Predict the 3D structure of the following.
Amino acid sequence: MIKLELSPKLYHYFVRPKWFTEKYIENRLRFILADYNFTNKSILDFGCGIGSNSIMFNPKDYLGVDYDKKRINYAKKMFYPYKFNSFDGINLPVSSNSIDYIIIIAVLHHINKDDITNYLNEFRRVLKPTGEIIIIEPCFFKDSQLSNFAMKFLDKGRFIRSKEEYVKIFKDDTWQIKSLNRFKKCIVYNEIFFSVALN
């Protein structure tokens, strides 16, 4: 099977154009994250892609990481002075106990359960004892079959899960679920927002 990937530039202009990011992503994220105080808090944006989420945070506190080096290089050009580093898939380029918040936005539905479990060990290593992970992911809901079908058709992620499946991955790894909400994005997308902390 041939896997076609858009270049970071094409992705930026056709999948995540500025108007779309502002209207459907930034505004929603600002609303969801309004209860959090990120002032002088270290932020790790896991799976940052082309860096679109960076502008919601202070450059001195933010680090975006992604496995795709091309997207990281693009993010460095587009969102200077924000910091971005590539991630080898095993070790996060971050010191132990140094991060207040890990932000994961629309990433886990591209990752199988075993790999997520491995990443959780790294998250545990880099988070401060009082740190949290904030997660926003596409989610299947039992009462929303039409949206579920649309997401399967439209989304490239092979691992969109139900709310229960997302929660179980973290609970089985002894993380504490602190908050959990569902919402709709772009009419057809159901998404889940939840945060977890070290037990």
Summary: The chain is about 35% helix and 30% strand. The beta strands are 43-46, 62-66, 83-86, 99-105, 127-140, 161-162, 175-185, 189-198. The longest strand covers residues 127-140.
